TrEMBL record:
It comes from Azospirillum griseum. The lineage of its organism: Bacteria, Pseudomonadati, Pseudomonadota, Alphaproteobacteria, Rhodospirillales. Pfam families: OCD_Mu_crystall. This is Ornithine cyclodeaminase. SUPFAM superfamilies: NAD(P)-binding Rossmann-fold domains (SSF51735). Coiled coil: none annotated.
Length: 353
C-alpha cells in the first residue's frame, strides 16, 4: 500500500467518514462483521487480557491490546458521560495495528467512529446466532451516539425493519428517528421503556450513565426475546435487573473482563455463562428454542478492535484516504540514531561556513 515501510498511514476522522461513505454504511457494517466473526472463530490464537483501565470520578481511560502473533493491535479509549453536558463526546478513541515480525506500526487511525461501527457489528454477529428466527422488530432503549449504528447493523445482518425507540431525553429519540428516516425502517417513538419493548423480538439497551441502573425490569422481558445489553461496560454500571439474568442464557465475549464490567458483575463469580466464540464455532449451543431468553452481555473486547483495524487496513489501498505519518526514525545506519540527529542540523548539500 505504501512502499516506504517507515511511513505509517494515518486515517483521520475526516478520512474515516469518507471511507465509510465510499463503501456505504450498511456494507461497511456487514463486511466488518465478517472480519469480527472470522476472528472470533480463531479465538484460541489471540493473546487475551482484560482491558487496562484507569478509573476516576469523571470517567475511565482504557487500553485494549491483543495479538494473533502476526499482527498486534491496541485501542486507546475513554468513557466520560459528563462530556455531553460540555458539548464533548462521551467516547473517543484511536488505535494502532503493528507487524509482530518487525514491531513496526502499519496503521494508525481514529477509532471514535470506528468503535461505534465495530460495537454495532459485534452486536449483530451475536444476534445472528442468538436472536429468535424471523426477528423483525427491535427496541432501542438509549438513543445516543451508538443507537443509529445498532439499528443499521441489525438491518444489514438480520433484516430488522421495525424500530421502537426510547430515551429519557426526548431530543435524543427525535435525533435518532430523524437520522434513520428514509433508511428503510418503520419507526415508533415511545414514551417509556415499557412501551418500547412491547412486541419487540430484540431489545437493545445502550445507555451511557456510569452507575447501577434498572433500564429493564423482570416483568418487561417476555419469553423468546434476545437482549443485546450494550451499555453496561464498567464496574458499577449495569442496565438490567438481576432477575432478568437469572431467567436468561447468558453469552459473553471474555468472561474475566465481563465479570468485572458487564451485567454479570451482579452474579456470583462462578455463575455459568457461554463464550460467544464457542457458539460461532459450534462448540456450544446458542438459541435452543422459541421461548428461550438469550442475553448478549456485551462490554467490547480487544479482538473486535483488532478486527476493525485489519478491515480498515485492507480497505485503504487505492483510496488515498489517509495521511502519511513520518513517525519511524530511519537512519542510514540503524545503530547511528544520534548521528541522524546531528545530520538534521546540516541538510545534504549545505556548505560549512
Amino acid at each position: 500500500m505504501i512502499p516506504n515501510l517507515n511511513i505509517v498511514p494515518f486515517v483521520s476522522v475526516d478520512h474515516m467518514m469518507k471511507l465509510v461513505l465510499k463503501i456505504g454504511v450498511e456494507r461497511f457494517l456487514s463486511d466488518l462483521a465478517a472480519y469480527i466473526e472470522e476472528d472470533f472463530r480463531r479465538w484460541p490464537v489471540f493473546d487475551k487480557t482484560p482491558r487496562v483501565a484507569s478509573h476516576s470520578a469523571d470517567g475511565v481511560i482504557e487500553l485494549m491490546p491483543t495479538s494473533d502473533n502476526r499482527n498486534y493491535g491496541f485501542k486507546y479509549v475513554n468513557g466520560h458521560p459528563k462530556n455531553t453536558r460540555e458539548g464533548r463526546q462521551t467516547v473517543t478513541a484511536f488505535g494502532v495495528l503493528s507487524d509482530v515480525a518487525t514491531g513496526y506500526p502499519v496503521l494508525m487511525t481514529e477509532m471514535t467512529i470506528l468503535t461505534a461501527l465495530r460495537t454495532a457489528a459485534t452486536s449483530a454477529v451475536a444476534a445472528k446466532a442468538l436472536a429468535p428466527r424471523g426477528a423483525s422488530c427491535m427496541a432501542i432503549i438509549g438513543n445516543g451516539a451508538q443507537s443509529e449504528f445498532q439499528a443499521l447493523a441489525f438491518k444489514a445482518l438480520l433484516g430488522i425493519r421495525e424500530l421502537r425507540l426510547y430515551d429519557i431525553d426526548p431530543d435524543a429519540t427525535a435525533k435518532c428517528a430523524r437520522n434513520l428516516a428514509g433508511l428503510g425502517f418503520a419507526i415508533t417513538t415511545c414514551h417509556s421503556a415499557q412501551e418500547a419493548v412491547e412486541g419487540a423480538h430484540i431489545i437493545t439497551t445502550v445507555t451511557a450513565d456510569k452507575q447501577y441502573a434498572t433500564i429493564l425490569t423482570d416483568n418487561m422481558v417476555g419469553a423468546g426475546v434476545h437482549i443485546n445489553a450494550v451499555g453496561g461496560d464498567c464496574p458499577g454500571k449495569t442496565e438490567l435487573h438481576r432477575d432478568i439474568l437469572l431467567r436468561s442464557d447468558i453469552f459473553v465475549e471474555y468472561p474475566p473482563q465481563t465479570r468485572i464490567e458487564g451485567e454479570i458483575q451482579q452474579l456470583p463469580a462462578d455463575y455459568p455463562v457461554t463464550e460467544l466464540w464457542q457458539v460461532l464455532t459450534g462448540a456450544a449451543v446458542g438459541r435452543r428454542d422459541a421461548r428461550q431468553i438469550t442475553l448478549f452481555d456485551s462490554v467490547g473486547f480487544a479482538t473486535e478492535d483488532f478486527s476493525a483495524l485489519r478491515y480498515v487496513r485492507d480497505q485503504l489501498q487505492g483510496t488515498g484516504l489517509y495521511q502519511e505519518l513520518d513517525m519511524l526514525a530511519d537512519p542510514d545506519e540503524p545503530r547511528d540514531l544520534f548521528g541522524m540527529l546531528l545530520r538534521a542540523a546540516s541538510p545534504p548539500g549545505a556548505v560549512a561556513a
